[in-house]
Design a protein that fits this description.
There is one protein chain. By secondary structure, the chain is mainly α. Helix content is 81%, strand content 0%. The protein has 25 helices and no strands. The chain is globular. The protein starts with 11 loop residues before the first helix and ends with a helix. It binds tryptophan (TRP).
Length: 595
């Protein structure tokens, strides 16, 4: 892509591969499972799929079309189509800024994938496997059988009561629980606890909330106790040998979980480690974008994308035979509206934009490296969009089916946040033992590569603006902008480090710098950009240009696309954004529909 004359993709297939390389990345394997876990699984996935189909695919086609027609990066493309500079150029600008923000935290997570590749090469999962096995065997040999029975009963009760108790918890609004927490921490620190309680209880609403939460908590305790009684009876019926077997197994899994958790902590909560890997990852992105070895990447994609898919499939099959598979399948596949959070619809929409690389002009840029002609050869504009979205969605769904069985098998929480993939996968690799080391190297290596093919598309958007519109040389633009993004990424790299000044964000805002950048860009900047792109393509793009782009497509496809891009996609995006600003409430509507 780095030539002096405008570069072109080798072929239609080459374009689909490169665009898929941009789309398939951390968004699929890291972000999708973690936001799915945070938002309660099945119903969230359903909304996400609707967003992909009704908003993502039409806007993807619109972006490719604008790029192909304008033969320029986003800022320039609008001017080229219009024949003069217009306000639409602002959409491109918004994209450059969004790219900046996304890339700044993307390199942090990509850096973690490099760290984990290296960790895997030195066999960290092996080490965890060995010490956990030894300690578990000791536990089996030494601990009193009664203690083991109690441990197994507790574990069993956790498992069987989980869905019931978490439904009970969700029956009260988050604010209610927060009031209880607030009250508890006030009492804890107070010299005179009952006075502190009385003071907070003067507010009627707080009073009602605290009492409701305390009542609910007692009810939850009671349910848990019932399950524990039943579990004790069940475990008491086991032979001693069975108890020993199971206790050793459970202990080993616990120890593995502990080791894996500590390993993630060592990476994420050490700002310098995260920053070091971010730097390394950024340098690789810069070298590729500056050197124009993107053709090499395009070729590598042909092998590595299928390889990633195969490896994920292998791990899905592995998960199928794990004890947590049923619980995971239920979590991922059963739409349960009661598990949805108020913010879930926006999260689903944001994820749809993020995973398809939409809303900031990356696909405009990639489309501009395609010849401007119409669709007579190959699958055509819409077909290409469906293919790219299809590959991307397939990998995202499989990633969930890979991660959640492991999570449930080890009794971990699905809502583990951004660390989810780095905690869940090593659990399986450690459990597998020696062969797990090879799988770990492959998995994190491929994840790193998928991240690289996405990050170059992000940097390319930023850089190509400065090349096309500001006449910077590619080398100068790439290095300067890459290093600026890196500097902007440092607060994200340090955001989970307890020693860092800005980690004070977390308690006061409920999110750290990293989370804020992640959600700000995906949930707000990308949908806003995408909305404008849809409106442009549907309503404002000169008909002559649009018709030339759509030439050769069948009438029903054309009509369907126009309907989506003109009405459905903008209406949905606007509705979701408005409801988040508080003007509309579709969650009530959706939850009502879901029963
Ligand atoms: N889609 C990529 C992923 O899933 C990330 C990405 C690349 C991106 N380019 C983008 C996201 C442009 C938004 C916009 O990892």
């Amino acid at each position: 892509m780095a030539g002096t004359s405008r570069a072109q993709w080798g072929s239609r297939l080459g374009f689909i591969l490169a665009a898929s390389g941009s789309a398939v990345g951390l968004g699929n394997v890291w972000r999708f499972p973690y936001v799915t876990g945070d938002n309660g699984g099945g119903y969230f996935i359903l909304i996400y799929l609707v967003c992909i189909a009704l908003v993502g695919i039409p806007i993807l086609a619109a972006e490719i079309m604008i790029g192909r027609a304008g033969q320029k990066q986003p800022v320039g493309a609008f001017a080229a189509i219009e024949g003069r500079r217009t306000l639409w150029g602002g959409v491109g600008w918004l994209g450059v800024i969004a790219g900046f923000v996304i890339l700044s935290f993307y390199i942090v997570v990509a850096g973690w994938s490099m760290d984990y590749t290296l960790k895997s090469v030195v066999g960290f999962t092996n080490g965890i496997h060995k010490s956990a096995s030894i300690e578990a065997a000791q536990f089996r040999g030494q601990a009193p059988v009664e203690e083991m029975r109690e441990m197994l009963a507790e574990r069993k009760a956790d498992e069987t009561s989980r869905s019931e108790t978490s439904a009970m918890r969700r029956a009260l609004a988050p604010k209610t629980w927060r009031d209880l927490d607030r009250m508890r921490s006030a009492i804890e620190g107070a010299v005179d606890p009952s006075a502190a309680r009385a003071r907070l209880m003067t507010d009627d609403e707080v009073l009602a909330n605290v009492e409701a939460a305390e009542r609910k908590e007692a009810a939850i305790e009671a349910v848990r106790a019932e399950h524990l009684e039943r579990a004790r009876v069940e475990i008491a019926a086991l032979t001693e040998n069975d108890v020993l077997e199971r206790a050793e197994d459970t202990k080993r899994r616990d120890l593995i979980a502990e080791g894996v958790g500590a390993a993630f902590g060592a990476t994420a909560s050490d700002g310098w480690t995260s920053a070091f890997w971010s730097l390394l990852f950024m340098l690789m992105t810069i070298l590729i974008v500056a050197g124009g070895v993107a053709e090499g990447i395009e070729r590598a994609c042909r092998v590595l994308l299928p390889a990633l898919l195969v490896l994920i499939l292998v791990m899905v099959v592995y998960g199928f035979f794990q004890p947590g598979f049923a619980a995971a399948a239920e979590f991922v596949l059963r739409p349960d509206a009661s598990r949805l959070l108020p913010s879930s619809v926006l999260e689903a929409l944001g994820q749809a934009f993020f995973t398809l690389s939409l809303g900031m002009g990356a696909m405009i840029t990639y489309g501009s490296y395609q010849r401007a002609e119409a669709n007579r050869a190959g699958p055509g504009l819409i077909g290409e969009s469906v293919a790219i979205a299809g590959i991307d969605t397939l990998i995202a769904l499989l990633a969930c089916l890979m991660i959640f069985p492991i999570i449930f098998s080890f009794g971990q929480a699905p809502a583990a946040g951004p660390g989810l993939v780095f905690i869940s996968m090593p659990l399986a690799f450690a459990e597998i033992g020696a062969g797990g080391m090879l799988l770990a190297i492959l998995f994190f290596g491929l994840l790193f590569f998928a991240a690289l093919t996405s990050s170059i598309s992000l940097l390319e958007v930023i850089v190509s603006y400065f090349i096309d519109e500001r006449d910077w040389s590619r080398t100068k633009a790439t290095w300067i902008l890459g290093l600026v993004v890196l500097a902007f990424g440092l607060p994200s790299a340090f955001s989970m480090d307890p020693g860092f000044v800005m980690s004070g964000w977390e308690p006061s805002y409920g999110a750290n710098f990293f989370d804020v950048m992640d959600h700000l860009s995906s949930n707000w900047m990308l949908p806003a950009g995408g909305l404008l792109i849809a409106i442009y393509a549907g309503w404002f793009m000169p008909k002559r240009v649009r018709d030339a782009q759509l030439d050769g497509l069948g009438a029903p496809i054309l009509l369907g696309w126009l309907l989506l891009v003109r009405f459905v996609a903008p209406a949905l995006v606007i509705a979701v954004l408005l409801q988040k600003v508080g003007i509309l409430n579709i969650d009530d509507l959706l939850i009502g529909l879901g029963g």
